[in-house]
Amino acid sequence: MGGGTISDWAMESFAVCRDAAYTGLGEATSSDRFRLSAAYVRTAIDAVRTQLARGGVRLAIVLNRALAAR
User: Fold this and answer.
1) Sign of the alpha-carbon dihedral angle for 29, 18, 6, 47
2) Closest Cα to residue 50, out of 6, 13, 8, 7?
3) Which residue pairs from 61-65 have beta carbons closer than 8 angstroms and sit at least 24 positions apart in sequence?
4) What pTM, to 2 d.p., does this model score?
5) In angstroms, rounded to a whole number, what is the distance separating the alpha carbons of residues 16 and 11?
6) What's the confidence (pLDDT) of residue 63?
7) pLDDT at residue 28 in the model
8) Structural contact between residues 34 and 25, judged by C-beta atoms closer than 8 angstroms
9) Contact assessment for residue 9 and residue 58, using Cβ atoms and an 8 Å cutoff
10) What is the mean pLDDT of the chain?
11) Stretch 16-44: mean pLDDT, rounded?
């Protein structure tokens, strides 16, 4: 989780968005609205929780490295 470059992390986040957030949106109920299924919401919440946890770990790594260099 903590390995890789910032570019790797960005690409990983893109893949999560592509697979969890942008897939399965369902049918448009009008020209500008979508009805999200309960399964979609659960998947999206799980993805957000995972990404927030990863971000926290990665931020800690960056801060530890920066402070150790002082």
Assistant:
1) positive
2) 13
3) 61/2
4) 0.72
5) 9
6) 93
7) 66
8) yes
9) yes
10) 85
11) 80
